[in-house]
């Protein structure tokens, strides 16, 4: 499906490049934490972005045994490989190649995410999206979205875009959120192709290149780097040109401008709320996520 190109008159520049830091998470899974806690205020409403990828099963096969969350949403996107989700109510889902799981932790859920294969490539991302104070104690919810249900289109320049959240070039994504208005695109560009995306001036935005190299304005952004896009009142979007065959995720959202109090997997607005989350989890009060129909 071919769509008309969005017109960006004044593109955003790159404010800075971020390389992230390699950490161990879960039961020893090696990941690149691209969006770290120090960037949460700058990239509000986004709290964390982890990129993971390996063709060595020992790097990831132990997975992420049962762990709690409260106060935000997780978006798990599997570029390659499979991940099985289970929660404390017995709900279970499988994210396969190209699939997404969108989970709203809300008032609290305990779940596990485990690789469902023992060899081959495992590659993907997990993004944490904050919830507004009024939604932090909402009912937990999740939805598994197979790759075939993610809307996509191809521009006249041959750029293929998968619209996970928000909308691009008139194509609505698989998920919409009124409060934070997230945009989440997977953009694959052939060499020398250009892609433009309109962005609201007040939204914080960034992109992460995981194949090739692109130019944002005159700034090269190589694979393995996140480019934070500068906020400017007159800017109306971003213009990306591929220096070679490239692939990236482009993410933007409306900032909540609320206090952030985080202790590991609990993200609330005050320290007292965090302490309560810890106590509730220890007391076994966390509910389970409800799968969408």
Automatic annotation (TrEMBL):
Entry-linked Gene3D superfamilies: Jelly Rolls
Pirin C-terminal domain boundaries: 184-287
Domain (Pirin N-terminal): residue spans on this chain: 30-129
Highest taxon in the source lineage: Bacteria
InterPro entries, A to Z: Pirin, Pirin_C_dom, Pirin_N_dom, RmlC-like_jellyroll, RmlC_Cupin_sf
Family as reported in the entry's similarity comment: Belongs to the pirin family.
Protein's recorded name: Pirin family protein
Organism this protein belongs to: Massilia violaceinigra
């Amino acid at each position: 499906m071919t769509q008309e190109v969005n017109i960006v008159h004044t593109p955003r520049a790159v404010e800075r490049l971020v390389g992230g830091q390699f950490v161990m998470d879960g039961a020893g899974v090696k990941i690149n934490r691209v969006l770290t806690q120090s960037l949460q205020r700058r990239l509000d409403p986004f709290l964390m972005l982890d990129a993971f990828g390996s063709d060595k099963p020992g790097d990831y096969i132990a997975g992420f045994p049962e762990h709690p969350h409260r106060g935000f949403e997780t978006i798990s996107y599997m570029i390659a490989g499979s991940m099985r989700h289970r929660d404390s109510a017995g709900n279970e889902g499988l994210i396969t190649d190209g699939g997404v799981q969108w989970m709203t932790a809300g008032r609290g859920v305990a779940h596990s995410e485990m690789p469902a294969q023992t060899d081959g490539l495992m590659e993907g991302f997990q993004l944490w999206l904050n919830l507004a104070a009024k939604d932090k104690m909402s009912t937990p919810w999740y939805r598994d979205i197979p790759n075939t249900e993610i809307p996509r289109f191809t521009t006249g320049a041959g750029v293929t875009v998968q619209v996970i959240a928000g909308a691009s070039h008139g194509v609505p994504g698989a998920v919409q959120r009124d409060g934070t208005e997230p945009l989440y695109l997977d953009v694959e560009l052939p060499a020398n192709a250009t892609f433009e995306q309109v962005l609201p001036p007040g939204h914080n935005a960034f992109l992460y290149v995981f194949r090739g190299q692109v130019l944002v304005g005159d700034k090269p952004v190589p694979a393995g780097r996140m480019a934070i896009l500068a906020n400017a009142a007159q800017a109306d979007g971003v213009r990306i040109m591929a220096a070679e065959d490239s692939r990236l995720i482009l993410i933007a959202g409306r900032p909540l401008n609320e206090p952030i109090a985080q202790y590991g997997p609990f993200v609330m607005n005050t320290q007292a709320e965090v302490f309560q989350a810890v106590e509730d989890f220890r007391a076994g009060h966390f509910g389970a996520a409800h799968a969408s129909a």
